[in-house]
Amino acid sequence: MADAVGERDASAHTPCLYLDPGVAVERYEQLRAAFADTDSYYAVKANPEPRLIRRLVRAGAFFDVASPAEIALCLAEGADPSRLSYGNTVKKASDIRHAYRSGVRLFVFDSQDELLKLAEHAPGSAVFCRLLASSAGAQWPLSGKFGCTPEMAVDLLTQAPRLGLRPVGVSFHVGSQQLDPGRWEPSVATAAWVSGELAAASIELTMLNVGGGFPVEYTSPVPPIERYADAIAAAVGRHFGTQPRLATEPGRYVAAVAGVLRTEVVLVSRKTFDDDTRWVYLDVGRFGGLAETEGEAIRYRLVTPHDGRPDGAVVLAGPTCDSVDILYQRAEYRLPLALRQGDVVDILAAGAYTTTYASVGFNGFPPLPTVCIGDDE
Amino acid sequence: MADAVGERDASAHTPCLYLDPGVAVERYEQLRAAFADTDSYYAVKANPEPRLIRRLVRAGAFFDVASPAEIALCLAEGADPSRLSYGNTVKKASDIRHAYRSGVRLFVFDSQDELLKLAEHAPGSAVFCRLLASSAGAQWPLSGKFGCTPEMAVDLLTQAPRLGLRPVGVSFHVGSQQLDPGRWEPSVATAAWVSGELAAASIELTMLNVGGGFPVEYTSPVPPIERYADAIAAAVGRHFGTQPRLATEPGRYVAAVAGVLRTEVVLVSRKTFDDDTRWVYLDVGRFGGLAETEGEAIRYRLVTPHDGRPDGAVVLAGPTCDSVDILYQRAEYRLPLALRQGDVVDILAAGAYTTTYASVGFNGFPPLPTVCIGDDE
């Protein structure tokens, strides 16, 4: 991908995300091959670039959507509404109505009030109940905000048929960029318990949505996707009697490596005469698309024109007048001593969770644009 | 302001920032009265709403700008370029050229390379050198990213005349929402030392930019602006021989109380049967404009239709499928037990550092719009 961007674009306006939708489709197909007999819902929020969505539609993908705008996007790019799952557990009644009118018939909830909203505004739909799950081991954790206890899930799923909804399964998410393939098993076991309780009430749950979280290689190696698929299949085999059909929600795994964020060095400076640490300011920062550097959680790999030459310690920061707009201060990044203002720096595997996080114009800097590269089938 | 929004708008689309530019002008004039004989540069980044800028131009304001877009905005609304200070210490060469061509002749720097860029692309301009400053006591701290040591400031300011630039003073910033009026004095003392060193080299610095940071009442009382003006004037009197002309850079102080962010409750839920803490999800969150709730730093005051009735503990969160999109989990917020989905919740003093932080469309949610209210003179 870094090569694909090429030298010819080195003088193009920065910052800019160069995205190759074909690479994302390859990644989706790789994941689909690893997870046999699984419905893989691409998490549109990771990167909603229309040309990427169009390519995934043609590849037969399913889509996990979070809002009316994401639904409209998928349908505009040719997706059938039966391929969409409205996975956000927090939805306005008007948004549920919009989804239902658009043909969406699969929804996720995790609370009493959301279940009642779905019953009223999406009658007859299939529903998943999301479980609280530990996201220990994830670099961008998810615990706390979404999901309910297994006991509450049993209660709510048991109510669903009486409310005119069709309970199909439970879902959970073990946290994004999850490095440990073994982290799914505790939630699989909990899901099996919930399914067993429902079966005892003569309600058969046929599906299990194991979420996303499959990691991408930024600066450190990660286990291959097959390891995750095998660990999850084994866990399901151990804990479920009747095997449910699996669903996954990959976002980062599909889109990240399809993108390179091309940036420019705005300034290299020192704060004192007696400290060798340089401050390197890029023309993109936490409010221009690199939101996931919050807490230095996601540590991107950087490519400079001087790689391989002598380097030294740096603090990396964005271009705004906001002191929290610092990318890496504790992560001990090193960059070539030859690095100068005006140099291009490529941020690799930046295709997921970047463009849509960008602010509308903090400090007057425009949002991060996308340029699609590669074959446009 | 909460009253000014009024019941008639209760059914309007949310989220939305209701902004009264007249209130912002009153705040600017109140600050200008407290700081006699001071040039007060409104920090455009706090809220760049064009109608607010236009009103401030008519009130004779100065403007602190961070980018070409902010410069273009101020000029379009009628500001004279002599009223602009390009306060961002991290600027592309092309952006300096743009500013210079636009007539801007006042720039801030904090490093050798930035000084050389200014010499090349903004010849003859007046320059401030920014000092590192402690932001202890600030709720949104600024230390580290901006400024240099006093020794480096002396070196750089001494170079300036030889490079064809006009050194006029030093600047510093003690952190946004600074609760302690005494926090300016250490930096004033350092600035006086720098000015003394320059005077010994026959370079007279005539100005001192004491930055912004003047706080706003969110959930806790803050000292009145006069207390800050008096403390700073007294510190300058103690440390400077020849009194410099002062400059300030208020942003939050001017814009915050001019705005009310009207939101809607999307969901009220519990995670377990045995925990009384409710999760309250609003239709705006950290990626929709409330970026300053990061680390629960800025704690806004909320107004609900049920205030005064029995309340209970809540966790407040935004509407996106991102678990860091939580507003307050440790801050022990309490809201009425009667609160339900669909209820309007007004977030007070939300006119600063909200709209421009909003993402272009994370999760497919549109950016935060502004509706101006009050007299449009």
TrEMBL record, chains A, B:
One BP term from GO: putrescine biosynthetic process from arginine, via ornithine
EC class (word): lyase
Entry's Gene Ontology molecular function annotations: ornithine decarboxylase activity
Annotated SUPFAM superfamilies: Alanine racemase C-terminal domain-like, PLP-binding barrel
Modified positions (N6-(pyridoxal phosphate)lysine) in chain numbering: 45
Gene Ontology CC entries for this record: cytoplasm
Span of domain Orn/DAP/Arg decarboxylase 2 N-terminal: 25-256
Cofactors named for this entry: pyridoxal 5'-phosphate
Gene3D superfamilies: Alanine racemase (3.20.20.10), Lyase, Ornithine Decarboxylase, Chain A, domain 1 (2.40.37.10)
Pathways per UniProt: Amine and polyamine biosynthesis; putrescine biosynthesis via L-ornithine pathway; putrescine from L-ornithine: step 1/1
InterPro entries: Ala_racemase/Decarboxylase_C, De-COase2_CS, De-COase2_N, De-COase2_pyr-phos_BS, Orn/DAP/Arg_de-COase, Orn_de-COase, PLP-binding_barrel
This protein's record includes keyword Lyase: yes
Catalytic activity: L-ornithine + H(+) = putrescine + CO2
Record keywords: Decarboxylase, Lyase, Pyridoxal phosphate
Entry-linked CDD domains: PLPDE_III_ODC
EC number: 4.1.1.17
Highest taxon above the source species: Bacteria
Active site residues according to the UniProt entry: 321
UniProt family annotation: Belongs to the Orn/Lys/Arg decarboxylase class-II family.
Name of the protein: ornithine decarboxylase
UniProt source species: Couchioplanes caeruleus subsp. caeruleus
